[in-house]
Amino acid sequence: MSLTSILSAEAIESAVKDCQEPNSFSYKKFFELCGLTSKTPQEVKDVFNILDEDNSGFIEEAELKFFLQRFVPGARTLTEAEARTFVSAADDDDDGKIGAEGLFSVVFLLGLLSRSPIMAAVSQEKQYTPSLLSFFVYNPSFGPREGEEEKKILFYHPSEVEKNEKIRNVGLCEAIVQFTRTFCPTKPAKSLHTQKNRQFFFEPEDNFWIVMIVRNPMVEKPNKDGKPPTVEYQEEEVLDTVYGAVLRQCYSMYKLFNGTFGRAMEAGGVSLLIQKLEKFFYRYLQTLHLQSCDLLDVFGGISFFPLDKMTYLKIQSFVNRVEESLSLVKYTAFLYNDQLIWSGLEQDDMRILYKYLTTSLFPRHSEPELAGRDSALRPEVAGNLLHYGRFLTGPANLKDPEAKFRFPKIFVHTEDGYEELHLIVYKAMSAAVCFMISASVELIRDFCERLDALVGPQLTLLASDICEQFTLNRRISGPDKEPQFKFIYFNHMNLAEKSTIHMRKTASVSLTSVHPDLMKILGDINCDFARVDEDEEVIVKAMTDYWVVGKKSDQRELYVILNQKNANLIEVNEEVKRLCATQFNNIFFLD
Amino acid sequence: MEGDVDRKATAAWSGCALPPMERLRAARADSPTPGLVEGTEPGAGQQAAMFVHSRSVEDLADEDAGESRGVPQLDADGDPGSSETSETSEKELQALQGEENIIETVQAPKETSWAESRTKEEDINSEGWRSHRKHVFVLSEAGKPIYSRYGTEEALSSTMGVMMALVSFVEADKNIIRSIHADGYSVVFLSKSPLVLVAVSRTCQSDQELIRELQYIYYQIVSLLTLTRLNHIFQHKQNYDLRRLLAGSEHLIDNLLRRQDRDPGLLLSAVTCLPMPGSSRDVVSASLQAAKTQSLVFSILLAGEQLVTLVRKKEQFLHHVDLHLVFNLVCSSSSSFREGEGWTPICLPKFNTAGFFHAHISYLEPASELCLVLVSTDCEDFFSLSDCKQRFLERLRKRGSAYQALKEAVKTPGYSVEQVGIPELRHFLYKSKSSGLYTSPEVPEMYQSEGEQERLMGLYQELHSRLHHTTRPLRYIYRCGETENLMAWLTSGFELYLCLTPLGTKALAMSAVNKLLKWIRKEEDRLFILSPLTY
Fold it and tell me: What is the model's pTM?
């Protein structure tokens, strides 16, 4: 395919001519003149693929300099300044490259601006990502008699659904579960696949069922003559393992803040449970972003901060000191840069708490800090106590006489059940500490002030120490060169997770630098691994010529994506060995 | 010497329709490379593909594609349902009952096949029933049981009622139920009006693979009755008990299900050939080609479950599904055809779901494995087909050496993987895409037990479903495990699956692939039908 099969030669020529003078290049004008703005998304992607000389899936800043020459061989190169403005406009993830979506979004926006919305709707295919259709909790034993079905339903999202519809949907789930018991009484259904959606069933406690219905991704193709658009469902796009894990996580998160369903039943019967479910899930479901769920949700791992021994000991002695002087503190956890360094909690509790901290609490509080360091320094204490410490949970300002000393309560496992704890999260710069204190104790101003005075200065010092160490280590290992590969590592024993696939995690979306199809291939390999309990290695080559390598050794899993089209099996193997040697030199992998 | 003469003779017979064989052979690449163009891979036939070109699963999924291929003159043939209106239906139902007798001729002696395969009286609440590897149920849209692999349909009628209820409940939402997944097993639904097929499987197969297997069962039923008649029956009487019509034919479904667990042909959508010298095969094909008659559409010579040769009418292609159904018919009821000449109606659903063909089935010699199937459009043509068979036999006997070579080949229908001469290779499957033929050595000692054989097939099935994934297909898979290393490779020309010892390295595996492809190229005229003929 050539450019002229999509864009007309005259249009290209006039567009290039228009920006003959150095620094006269404007991508908006250029795309308009060459006619790209009126093309379909697919055509724009085709153009992108032609421009992407090394087929990397990205146009790098270096390639961009020769941008005009890709259109007309004799054209000038872009100046540094022009290239940079161009990149920053189209680059949606700040990596100095334009992905196909990057270029697409620039052109697409322009296209929308220049046309009336109706026209755009007619000629565009609309792609819908998987989304949450409904989510409900029911207990079949609450309404066993006919006519009482509604009593089974404890929570239903969206709540505005008509009553009979709710009953019907719950009924189907019950029927599916009951039906599968014919074939295996102990292991009932976990998911139902239909053309339009996937339903996931989970029974976390006896007779309590949580069901999540996810709509399959779909493409809406417009029809001419005002007929309704044709909808095509993409049925193989949703991975059971991923959304099964998301559903289990929903329950874990509920349990972290509310304890089990059974606890609510004991304390206040069905009505209390309904109230708690309503309160929790109403907010929580809004934070579910089903379109960006992937293999990492299956692992639900914890990212650990790499540290040298000395600094690690410093942190440990800090934790010990605080625990000794504040004897109320039962458990402590220490994080830096959203990565865990030290935790006194059980692994499973830490896993869900970590999820809460990194995806919900920290992102909510990161904005004011980014806005400017100075503002974090409370003016009223600037004179005497110079530290950056502040409470992320509980009182926003200690000096405020109106301040309330209420902390969120969480439930963690103990040997014989669970205990209720206050969760205090205290942060100074990039270092955050969680202190957990038995809920039976009432926390008062005096305690918080003592904590602030004790922890604030020490943590500020510690944070800058870690930061120094970190940059030092980075400098020794040399500047980061863009590697030829992306990887995910997970260890089932300590839940440690390491990934270079997610470039930036925010509260709402985690951007991946990898094509979703490749992520799903990783998911497929993970399913194969889960099925057999032995060490395995899988190397596959996708139709896009990417190589994907999966290794499972003991409790560890490693997935590597290599962008080396012409490599053969042996070269791929060598490349992965090199990666293991640099990133995981002390971990043994089956060869 | 003899071989040379034969070769020339073949070339002369095939006449102007075939380009000179030598030249074409020279045009084929010497050693296969990944860049092979389709049609030049080892095993590719020289004329147009012998079967309907199939892209395996995708092809099967696209159900309507094959159904319009029937030639017009065939449509009207042998189909009592299409021309009549409903007022004559009473008479027709009687006719249907009469039809049972014809089907009856197909069935194997009841005592043997039932005793060994159908443990019908099983208690459906027992652990034993639940733990079967794969259940298959067929029901009508009214929820009436038609077939169950294990347990009696009577005992299962309420279970099947629930299945139908689930299907229609989801349908009421303008949605379609596909499958249910649980720990260790899955339930797959296939709705093919007027039938519903359900599989409950404890294997690791993907939904896609299970659907493909159910489709084979569906086609098996259509092949016995034609779709037109099936539709007609259920339009007329919604809760008709189809078992009345299928009685005595269940063993065909049983047998097909058994074959799916161990025959790679059904997985690859391909058939395998009896290995024999190419020159002798050409002579046999030419003899078969010469024994023709007006109504003959396909002449198929089988040795057990292997194809010896196939001659077809020009422009008519035999789809691999249809060919497997013919295989299944012959293999499931071999004893009844051995005694004489069989004459049975058969619908080839990928060719035309509306009408019956008529198949003349006979063994060349009573004790021989060689079975000749002559497929005709005319139900009155028994005697002229019988005559064709005689002419073929006479011709073959005259060419004594080729017949001898054929008989020799039947004695050793397989080859061992040692013959390939790659020590780390345990087993392989190779499919030439353009010809729809595959080759594979005998299952080695270590995979011979039933469980191991099914496990090996299971591994191939997994690789197959990954390679042919509907939205994220793969080119290449290499998998290292504790019991074996596996490799799968999909190119535009061929599909290759290797099972290697777990001790080999990746470099050894790569060289094994190259050596194997060279070996297949060298042996291709023994392993494949390179010059298929038409009448």
Answer: 0.78
